[in-house]
């Protein structure tokens, strides 16, 4: 994570602005999950709209899955830590999401898909992150990409921090996906106890991290961020990035992106810019135009 030009000792780090505890909820046909990035954070963490964590070894929590449902106006990024999910969509897309793999789906002008567990028992653990599309791209053609675990670029820093680069770029390693307007950075970090790392972040970008196992200290203030906590990182025009120290063995997601600063109109699985576009999305879906 440590970049060529900055070490953890010289980097001016963002601090923790706010700690967020996820809200237990259910979605799809009754999958129990934790909504970590909720609607009230959409402005603050623009261009990100939602982050869900699903983690359970009780099949009753996940077997119902997410049967056919529509999306329009943004992208969904599903990252599996454990378990298997089958994706099917009305655009001909199909794939098996396996541990360590990523599904990057661009809903664009409209897609109908299902995400169903391909296991009867055992642990199902993963994340779904929603990345907004710029107004100009909301009605692009839908597309879908499966990236197996082996296709996610990975590196290990001299401190022993393992970094999976899902999107963006770190230490000269380009991630599996890049986006021009929002320049998403999406890293999964596996930090040994006692390790530290620094990641440069453009000062203009919104950023957050989510600890899903272990505990870290963030920034010069060394604010503690424990497991199942999302830390909103300050926007400091003078900060170069973020420094992170792991107290225990820790796994966390580090996410950043350039805000769109466009109006957000959401109705369930449709995210557009105006109420009129939402009405149109519902009408198009009901008329079978997806
Ligand atoms: Mn979906």
Report on the structure:
The protein has a single domain, classed as Jelly Rolls (Sandwich), CATH 2.60.120. The chain has helices spanning 59-62, 275-286, and strands spanning 16-21, 23-27, 31-37, 48-56, 66-71, 74-82, 85-89, 94-97, 102-106, 111-117, 124-132, 143-147, 154-156, 162-167, 169-170, 173-174, 185-191, 196-200, 206-213, 216-218, 223-225, 229-233, 241-246, 250-257, 265-267, 270-272. It is mostly beta strands. It starts with 15 loop residues before the first strand and ends with a helix. Strands 1-22-19-24-17-14-13 form a seven-stranded antiparallel β-sheet, with no helix packed on it. The longest helix is centred in the C-terminal third of the chain and has 12 residues, at 275-286. The chain is globular and about 60 Å long. The site of manganese (II) ion has 6 residues, from strand 5 and strand 10.
Please, what is the CATH homologous superfamily? Answer: Jelly Rolls
Q: What's the shape? A: globular
Fill in the CATH topology.
Answer: Jelly Rolls
- Which radius of gyration do the C-alpha atoms yield? 18 Å
Residue stretches low in confidence (pLDDT < 50, at least 5 long) are: none
| Strand order within the widest beta sheet | 1-22-19-24-17-14-13
How much of the sequence is in beta strands? over 45%
Query: What is the CA–CA distance across the termini?
Result: 41 Å
The kinds of small molecule bound in this structure are: manganese (II) ion
What CATH architecture would you give?
Sandwich
Number of helices: 2
């Amino acid at each position: 994570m440590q970049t060529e030009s900055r070490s953890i000792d010289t980097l001016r780090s963002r601090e923790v602005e706010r700690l967020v505890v996820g809200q237990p909820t259910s979605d799809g046909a009754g999958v129990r999950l934790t909504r970590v990035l909720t609607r009230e954070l959409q402005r603050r963490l623009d261009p990100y709209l939602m982050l869900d964590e699903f983690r359970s070894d009780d099949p009753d929590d996940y077997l119902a899955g997410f049967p056919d449902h529509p999306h329009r106006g943004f992208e969904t990024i599903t990252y599996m830590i454990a378990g298997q999910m089958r994706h099917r969509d009305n655009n001909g897309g199909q794939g098996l999401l396996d541990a360590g793999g990523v599904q990057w789906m661009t809903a664009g002008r409209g897609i109908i898909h299902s995400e169903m567990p391909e296991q009867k028992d055992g642990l199902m653990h993963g994340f779904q992150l929603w990345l907004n599309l710029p107004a100009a791209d909301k009605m692009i053609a839908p597309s879908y990409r499966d990236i197996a675990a082996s296709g996610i670029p990975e590196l290990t820093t001299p401190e022993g921090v393992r970094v999976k680069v899902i999107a963006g770029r770190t230490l000269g390693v380009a991630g599996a996906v890049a986006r021009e307007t929002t320049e998403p950075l999406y890293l999964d970090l596996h930090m040994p106890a006692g390790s530290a790392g620094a990641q440069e972040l453009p000062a203009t970008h919104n950023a957050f991290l989510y600890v899903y196992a272990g505990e870290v200290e963030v920034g010069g203030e060394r604010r503690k961020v424990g497991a199942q906590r999302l830390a909103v990182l300050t926007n400091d025009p003078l900060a170069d990035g973020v420094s992170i120290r792991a107290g225990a063995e820790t796994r966390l997601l580090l996410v950043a992106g350039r805000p769109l600063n466009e109006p957000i109109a959401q109705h369930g699985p449709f995210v557009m810019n105006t109420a009129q576009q939402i009405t149109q999305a519902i009408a198009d879906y009901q008329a079978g135009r997806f």
